[in-house]
Task: inverse folding
């Protein structure tokens, strides 16, 4: 993506999670869709307030786990039956109960890796640059003790002057404009 | 337990419940962030850290010497021979893996049970897991004789046209332990990503901002990210829980699947898992008690944590005690001559002393004292007790491995076991390596998860608008 220019959005800073949630809920009700909240720890109510209810991480994990299960069980079967059959005390080559343990471990391995990397991928991380880091107060607070609401310029309702006045009606600590 | 046992005017006690507080009063988002990041971001390393690191580093160097000599001479430098082919290497392997299990238990199982008190201790418990697995994983590898061919354990296409044997518990171990190590590292790292974001933003040095910035992957705390992050954490916890139970089960299969008196028993999987958690919590205490003192974290790792860990140890200690009792019972009830002799020999044979060390350290001392809340919140006592249980659990593995093997079916093949200096050097060396790795972790990574602590602070409570205005 070529670097964009101009305004990324307007960033309002709040002192408490309660103020952030009220502002976010109101903005969502007033028709804002391109908006996001930034908090130093998980605030589920804020995600609810901006209408983010479901995520695909569980699905990715399930698919990953099933793939791990299938991969290891078929590998074991192929090796023990076809590639390298060993006669151990006359036991059947397809001795599936013994195959359960590695297949079980690989289910967990693949599911776990899918959950972790799937979560990062869905979040669009790693993304070492983001316009919000240009905001003077963002890095001091967003990962420590402040709560932010960002109205993005891509929203059709966005107008620099009106949006700024709108955000100020929530009585935030500050409203700053974020450049790309 | 009666509340009268403890001082009621202690500010650490919540008057509403009579319990110790999980976090001391008066902590805010900023104070927690300050406290935890300062330990890492300060340019001044405490002298005590260097002293301890010197000791740990010396141990790790000794390990390097022992392993180098082992590679040059072969496993003959150890005391292993017939009939005892599994000596210190397997004892230490099982002991270290067991220690690791408490870390996963704290981070995964207690998360699923919504035990939020765990938030203060889960990060360094997970770190303990990883370093314990590093130490554990080394032992089977150096025990195989030609460790440079260790990759033969993996199924890969090769010119010899040979594939591994999937019916062997030793191969199951490869998958169990490698999965455990991988998932533990991933869980640990994912848990640290938001805190790396905090470190990046608080760091004043260019290098710190660069390194923590890379490690944080650009975390910016969007609530959409947080929701996915929380889902992934819960899923990882849900996956790590059956994993941790399966790992020690698979390790117990190494013994239980063999047809040897003293090993061939169905009680092994649950008894191994409980023992693992027992020793692991002891190790968490061994690490947590000096850490909170040294870094003044008494407000975040409180008496409540020590107390709760004491309770978990009491419960798992009884399961372990049941395991010991059941082994003795089955030796009699099975009516097998070999089983009965093994148990008699284990208790009263020439190496019987090791059995009584184990019973004293694992049952008599902890299970009589841990009932008392006064003792559970007595910090020096708990530290001493954690060392006793760690010793006892090491002897448990010693008893299982050595006393089952040294006098087998045929008296002409009886032997004894006396570890050589190389055995001791390798074992003590891993303790040094563990200490050194743990100290590096404490110095360079946030040892308490800030984002999870913030969730437990009073400021995280969502107030209705009027109250928020009326308050501070």
Result:
């Amino acid at each position: 993506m070529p670097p964009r220019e101009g305004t990324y959005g307007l960033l309002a800073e709040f002192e408490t999670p309660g103020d952030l949630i009220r502002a976010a809920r109101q903005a969502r009700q007033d028709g804002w869709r391109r908006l996001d909240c930034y908090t130093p720890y998980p605030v589920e109510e804020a995600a609810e307030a901006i209408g983010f209810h479901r995520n695909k991480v569980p699905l990715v994990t399930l698919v990953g786990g099933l793939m791990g299960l299938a991969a290891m069980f078929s590998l074991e079967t192929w090796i023990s039956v076809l590639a390298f059959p060993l006669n151990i005390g006359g036991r059947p080559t397809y001795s599936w109960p013994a195959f359960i343990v590695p297949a079980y471990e690989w289910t967990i391995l693949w599911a776990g890796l899918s959950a972790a990397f799937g979560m990062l991928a869905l979040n669009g991380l790693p993304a070492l640059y983001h316009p919000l880091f240009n905001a003077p107060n963002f890095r001091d607070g967003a990962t420590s003790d402040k709560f932010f609401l960002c109205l993005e310029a891509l929203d059709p309702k966005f107008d620099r002057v009106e949006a700024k006045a709108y955000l100020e009606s929530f009585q935030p600590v500050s409203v700053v404009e974020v450049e790309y | 337990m009666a509340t009268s046992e403890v001082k009621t005017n202690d500010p650490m006690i919540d008057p509403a419940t009579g319990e110790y507080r999980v976090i001391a009063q008066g902590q805010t988002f900023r104070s927690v962030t300050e406290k935890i990041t300062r330990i890492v971001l300060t340019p001044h390393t405490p002298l005590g850290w260097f002293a301890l690191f010197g000791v740990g580093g010396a141990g790790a160097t000794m390990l390097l010497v022992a392993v180098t000599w082992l590679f040059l001479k072969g496993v003959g430098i150890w005391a292993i021979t017939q009939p005892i082919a599994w000596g210190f290497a397997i004892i230490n392997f099982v002991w270290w893996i067991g220690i690791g299990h408490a870390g996963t238990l704290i981070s995964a199982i207690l998360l699923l049970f919504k035990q939020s008190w765990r938030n203060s201790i889960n990060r360094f418990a997970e770190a303990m897991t990883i370093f314990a697995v590093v130490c554990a994983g080394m032992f089977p590898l150096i025990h195989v004789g030609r460790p440079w061919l260790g990759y033969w354990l993996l199924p890969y296409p090769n010119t010899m046209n040979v594939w591994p044997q999937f019916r062997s518990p030793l191969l199951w171990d490869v998958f169990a332990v490698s999965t455990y190590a991988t998932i533990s590292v991933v869980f640990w790292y994912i848990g640290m990503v938001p805190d790396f974001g905090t470190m990046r933003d608080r760091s004043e040095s260019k290098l710190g901002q660069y390194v923590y910035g890379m490690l944080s992957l650009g975390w910016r705390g969007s609530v959409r990210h947080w929701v996915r992050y929380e889902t992934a954490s819960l899923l990882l916890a849900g996956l790590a829980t059956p994993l941790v139970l399966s790992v020690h089960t698979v390790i117990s299969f190494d013994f239980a699947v063999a047809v040897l008196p003293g090993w061939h028993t169905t009680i092994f999987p649950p008894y191994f898992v409980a023992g693992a958690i027992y020793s692991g919590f002891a190790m968490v205490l061994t690490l947590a008690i000096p850490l909170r003192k040294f870094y003044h974290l008494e407000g975040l790792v409180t008496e409540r944590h020590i107390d709760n860990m004491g309770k978990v140890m009491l419960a798992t200690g009884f399961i372990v005690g049941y395991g010991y009792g059941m082994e003795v019972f089955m030796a009699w009830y099975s009516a097998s001559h070999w089983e009965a002799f093994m148990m008699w020999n284990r208790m009263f044979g020439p190496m019987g002393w090791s059995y009584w060390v184990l019973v004293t350290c694992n049952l008599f001392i902890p299970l009589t004292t841990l009932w008392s809340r006064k003792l559970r919140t007595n910090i020096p006592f708990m530290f001493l007790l954690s060392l006793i249980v760690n010793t006892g659990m090491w002897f448990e593995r010693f008893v299982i491995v050595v006393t089952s093997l040294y006098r087998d079916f045929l008296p002409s093949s009886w032997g004894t076991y006396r570890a050589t200096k190389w055995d001791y050097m390798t074992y003590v060396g891993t303790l040094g390596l563990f200490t050194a790795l743990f100290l590096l972790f404490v110095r360079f990574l946030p040892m308490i998860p800030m984002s999870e602590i913030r969730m437990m602070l009073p400021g995280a409570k969502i107030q209705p608008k009027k109250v928020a205005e009326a308050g501070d």
